[in-house]
Amino acid sequence: MNYVFDILGPLLAGTAVTLQVFLITLVLAAPLGLCLALLRISRFRLVSSLVNGYIWLMRGTPLMLQMLFIYFALPFVPVIGVRLPDFPSAIVAFVLNYGAYFAEIFRAGIQSIDRGQYEGARVLGMTYPQTMRRIVLPQVVKRILPPLSNETITLVKDTSLIYVLAMNDLLRAARGIVQRDFTTTPFVVAAAFYLLMTLVLTLGFAHLEKKYAVYDE
Amino acid sequence: MNTMISAQDVHKRFGALEVLKGVSLDVAKGEVIAVIGPSGSGKSTFLRCLNHLETIDRGRVEIEGDALVSTDESGIARYVAEPEIRRICSRMGMVFQHFNLFPHLTVLDNIVEAPITVKGMARDEILPKAERLLAKVGLLDKRNVYPSRLSGGQKQRVAIARALAMEPDIMLFDEPTSALDPELTGEVLRTIRELAEERMTMLVVTHEMAFAREVASRAVFMDGGEIVEARPARELFASPEHPRTRAFLENML
């Protein structure tokens, strides 16, 4: 038991990195996903095709590859080429990637809303933005909570991919200790940490679902 | 200005199907018009063309003297600009077959939503009126309930109150009782009848022949995308002139 306390320090430091990547990604990728979803259902063909292509690219290549590309290859790309340090590189890759997944979740939610809702709002004089903000999106949130919860939990675990940029997230910290001390205990502790984080998320989403259960459709 | 709605030679097609083949109708202030006819005759589409839920291909629609859409010599229907469309259409309230209440809002919030969002009214400002309307349709006790808790007839009465909260000059009803259980149609028809007694200008697409005969000032029989016969309701029901009207009415009774 004492050993567990000894390794807690570096594991908590790793958890801090993991949580940072998780929270920043969530805060930035969710609105990006919503914007992408709205653009994708746009009646301007060109716009929706571009977003389609973007989503295909982001879902069609490994997140790890995207991270490596942004860190190592982006500096050499003409015009948009910038050299980013490791943490921003990871964040950019995560946000771009998760934005694509969130976009599809939002799109499915928006398209599941009955056309009658738009007509009901329109005959009351509401504009499209008003209809979206006041009528459609509040209902979308309720419908997409389960897939959103899924995606968010996946994000917690995907953060472990940042080890390829040599950052010390929870899993890499644990692995370092495993290799140093020749014991798998750090893995077990790390697993417990991940479970704790996803438990918080699970409970959070359960709370939201309950909150939205005040009305049926 | 006594003509509330003026539709001239309205044409509408969905792909190869010509749904409206030149429909013309003038509605005067205070008139209650029942639009009857077999399903697929274009009566709902015609109603939806009046408030821009459908766009027309040719013809002219005027609401209280303001053109919503007109057709030039080239034969192409041209609508006025979008803000103007919204301004003109806001004079018409609409009630749908499937209610289209907002499920995430309580009954009261369904009613105050548009006055607040569209007209920029304060909640306190619209609340007394919303409650008065709810009382009028007999649902004040349901004010804090979500629509899923209501019966179909109650939902439709909330939908009527919601439309009235925007103070329209004209009310359009698109088969308001078709989705209801027979025993619930009465309460909705009663509400519409009360509006008629208050001289609200109304267009009601309906399959309720008894209601059309008793409440409507004029009945319009549509078939195959055109108006076959439009006459004072009692006359049309008592002695239909056109054989198609006669056949339809005989079938309905």
Molecular structure report:
The complex is a heterodimer of chains A (217) and B (253). Chain A is mainly α and 217 residues long. Chain A has eight helices and no strands. In chain A, helix 1 packs across helix 4. The model of chain A has no long low-confidence stretch (mean pLDDT 94). In chain B, the strands form two sheets. Chain B has a six-stranded mixed sheet, sandwiched between helices. A five-stranded antiparallel sheet of chain B has the order 2-1-4-5-6. At the A-B interface, helix 5 and helix 6 of A face strand 7 and helix 3 of B.
Number of helices of chain A: 8
Biggest interface between chains: A-B, 22 and 27 residues
Principal-axis shape of chain B: globular
Strand content of chain B: 25-35%
Number of helices of chain B: 9
Helix content of chain B: 25-40%
Question: What is the N-to-C succession of helices and strands of chain B?
Answer: EEEHEEEHEHHHEHEHEEHH
- Assembly of the depicted chains: heterodimer
What would the keywords be for this entry?
heterodimer, A: 217 residues, mainly alpha, MetI-like fold, B: 253 residues, alpha/beta, 6-stranded mixed β-sheet, 5-stranded antiparallel β-sheet, 37% helix, 28% strand
What is the topology?
The complex is a heterodimer of chains A (217) and B (253).
Chain A lengths: L1 H39 L4 H16 L2 H11 L12 H26 L3 H9 L4 H31 L11 H12 L3 H28 L5
Chain B lengths: L2 E12 L2 E12 L3 E5 L6 H8 L7 E6 L2 E6 L5 E3 L2 H8 L2 E4 L11 H11 L5 H14 L15 H13 L5 E5 L7 H16 L3 E5 L3 H7 L2 E6 L2 E7 H6 L4 H10 L1
Parallel strand pairs in B: 3-9, 3-10, 7-8, 8-9
Antiparallel strand pairs in B: 1-2, 1-4, 4-5, 5-6, 10-11
How do you describe this structure in short?
The complex is a heterodimer of chains A (217) and B (253). With 217 residues, chain A is mainly alpha-helical.
